[in-house]
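It is worth pausing here to work through a concrete case rather than discussing structure prediction in the abstract. The textbook approach is simple: state the sequence, then state the predicted structure, then interpret. We follow exactly that order.
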Amino acid sequence: MRKRNIYILIVIFLLAVFAGFLDYPSVWNKGADFLNAKLPFKIPHYFDISFKLGLDLQGGTHLLYQADLSNIETKDYSSSMQGLRDVIERRVNLFGVREPVVQIEEKSQRLIVELAGIKDVNQAIQMIGQTPFLEFREQKSQEETQKILDKIKEVEGKSFEEIQKIPDWQLAIEDPYFQPTQLTGKYLKKAELSFDQTATYKPLILLQFNDEGAKIFEDLTAENVGKPLAIYIDNVLISAPTVQEKISGGKAQITGQFTIDEAKKLAQNLNAGALPVPIKLISQQTVGPILGKISLEESLEAAIIGFLAILLFLIIFYRIPGFFAAIALIFYIIFVLALFKLISITLTLAGIAGFILSMGMAVDANILIFSRTREELKQGKSYLISLEDGFKRAWPAIRDGNFTTILAALILFVFGIGFVKGFAFTLIIGNLVGMFTAIFITSNLLRLFLGEKTGRLAWLWR
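Step two, the predicted structure:
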């Protein structure tokens, strides 16, 4: 049993080292640079993943849009807003914004866009405010494609002034593979998810055009049998199904190796262009980087003070067990911060609050175990038996307490919006890691410490 405890702690220690360098890679990288200057071989740098900070910590812009659904049927409200959100999120990503937040409030028909660290706010507002544009494009001939590709190579690496001197330089900015047609989103009545009624039952997308669009679509499919018909939203290719035959009647289906989620998202994007949803900017708030920096510094200060207060409490009231619980809490912080980086969590003030709260709750399991162990010791049991019985009797309370907290946090995450989700997510991660550190780290440390001479240190336990 003692060897098993040692092996478990060695594995946890190695994981903590890995996580610690992930949290603060500059320690490894500086050491590697120092040794690389003296060694004949090179020590690689530790991979550096930065923390992702939200709007309130990094600064940026909060935009609130009102969607106009007056021309949309009530049953299509949800799909139109979902499709609109996907298109806006894709547009925002063009600006290189880290972890943009694009959310919808279906009851108020509003769209929330948060752009952390955005530089050109006016350009972002202009791009976001445009109504999604859906179009169908047909394949260009090989000669046209090759001509454009050659022109792209010709202008590559040249300044704009030099490019303007090249004959037909405008070809270099054209789509080399597909050309626009008359068929656009205004002719598409709706797109919806369905399933193949054969034995495969694979997901597919059903398209329905209006009368004018049906005629255009019929002519277009007749001319492109065996060729792809590309579908673009905001000049971004979202699908390129191959035309199998001439299609009449204004109804068609897109088949392929879709998952249900992929097919559903494609239908939403098609509806976003087929059912244009104009949006109007009704609120704009800017958070300066200075305010964000102050918020981050104050949050970190609160976390450090809370951490030290918990350590002090554990050591004063629980002595030796409290000391081991304090060590486990250090491991807890190392693991949680590493998970924040690996899962790419966007940290906000609310998220940090959830982390600080979970840090306090991380020792809750330890306190339950220590209290139960003390009760067993008062009955005259040996330390090892008291510890094992303490763990067994404390476990139901630990399990139920953490389960209810995680359940409440899950409800907040599913039904909440914005900062509430960040708070709930960090709280869930903190609870899970807290249970792990209490059960695997604190317990194994205590078992290793127990021995024949432990009785002489009874005052450090009771």
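Step three, interpretation. The mean pLDDT is 82. The CA atoms of residues 412 and 424 lie 6 Å apart.
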